[in-house]
Task: inverse folding
């Protein structure tokens, strides 16, 4: 046998392998007949990968935050000058506006003033899902950084005598860690007033509806005129009675003229009440069923 024949044979086999169609077999028989065409099964892609990658790496995200907070700064001057200016939903202002009310702004915390994308990135890296234990652990690390634009806006507010309230659905027992994180990130926290209002805050005379923030906004309004609100969820501005796509639209519809004037909305593609609205708010469903319903909500025309 010629010494060159094995090499020629190997070359022919290599070319044949490269030219074989890379299609997924439809049966075990097809796989046996054409083993080269068998693809190794891959795990499902993590639905949150692109959202977290965008949040952490896209300059467009930072610019949107800066743009939003800059617009809020411009409106702050107008709001201070107008004693009738109020940024509360109509049913949350129980008392009259008068000169005794101190000016305030209400800000959500997570993804509004603090960036928790490292926690989301850990979930993606570990193929894990949110749970209260790991979330509390992250909060107690006190390492979340301020989002772009938040420092400039909150410091401007304080310089103009405006109290900054942080209205969050972080549990109230995370208050100390949260306030420490806010200060560590450079955000102003008033010393003479409780400005962290977490989930579980008791509001006398107001019946609270789950995690909705209406009662806590009403509490702030008892002593303050609310100039602006900033958040990344519709619930940061108004209570949502029906968390469905239609219900969410209806909740904000009366206040569309306030967007960019009194209410400033930030993007959050990584999580939020928009997601369970797509699968009837039923987290007990298997993940693949929730995913199917989210896919079914997509528009293709």
Result:
């Amino acid at each position: 046998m010629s010494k060159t024949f094995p090499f020629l044979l190997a070359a022919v086999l290599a070319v044949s392998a490269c030219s074989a169609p890379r299609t997924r077999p439809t049966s075990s028989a097809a796989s046996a007949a054409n083993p080269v065409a068998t693809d190794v099964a891959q795990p499902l892609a993590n639905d949150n990968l692109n959202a977290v990658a965008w949040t952490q790496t896209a300059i467009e995200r930072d610019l949107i935050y800066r743009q939003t907070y800059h617009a809020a700064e411009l409106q702050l001057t107008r709001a201070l000058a107008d004693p009738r200016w109020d940024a509360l939903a109509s049913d949350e202002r129980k008392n009259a506006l008068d000169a005794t009310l101190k000016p305030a702004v209400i800000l959500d915390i997570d993804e509004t003033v603090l960036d928790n994308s490292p926690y989301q990135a850990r979930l993606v890296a570990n193929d894990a899902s949110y749970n209260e234990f790991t979330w509390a652990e992250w909060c107690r690390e006190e390492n979340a950084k301020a989002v772009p634009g938040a420092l400039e806006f909150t410091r401007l507010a304080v310089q103009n005598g405006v109290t900054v309230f942080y209205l969050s659905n972080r549990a109230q027992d995370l208050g100390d860690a949260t306030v420490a994180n806010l200060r560590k990130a450079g955000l102003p926290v008033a010393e003479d007033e409780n400005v962290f209002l977490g989930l579980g805050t008791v509001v006398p005379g107001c019946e609270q509806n789950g995690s909705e923030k209406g009662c806590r906004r009403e509490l702030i309004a008892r002593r303050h005129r609310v100039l602006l609100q900033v958040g990344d969820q519709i619930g940061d501005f108004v209570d949502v009675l029906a968390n469905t796509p239609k219900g969410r639209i209806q909740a904000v519809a009366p206040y569309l003229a306030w967007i960019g004037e009194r209410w400033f909305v930030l993007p959050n593609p990584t999580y939020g009440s928009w997601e369970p609205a797509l699968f009837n708010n039923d987290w007990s469903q298997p993940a693949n069923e929730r995913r199917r319903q989210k896919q079914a909500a997509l528009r293709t025309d």
